[in-house]
Amino acid sequence: MDQLARFTEERDWAQFHTPKNLAMALNVESAELLELFQWLTAEQSERPDRERRDRIADELADVFVYCLLLSRRLDIDLLDATRQKMIKNEAKYPAELVRGSPKKYDEY
After folding, report:
1. Distance (Å, whole) CA 18 – CA 25
2. Does any domain span residue 30?
3. Which tens digit of pLDDT belongs to each residue from 61-78?
């Protein structure tokens, strides 16, 4: 987080890092990640070549950076938020009801 803050401050970009802008940028980066899988078969997506894998890593990093910046801007502890979300997910998706099923919680 310190490195991200320093990077942003050195470029005077904090003025652009509103929650709205960060959420939009996150979506753009997610789309760029998705594009790397477009038209691949399921098998191809499991075994990308080295060049595509490196590009996937870059896009994942971009997504992660925007998640971190947004969480910092809104003072959200991502680790705590993840723990809390997993508690909710465990309640929504009891293993005994959903094991092996792709159904959403409102479909079973």
Report:
1. 10
2. yes
3. 999 999 999 999 999 999
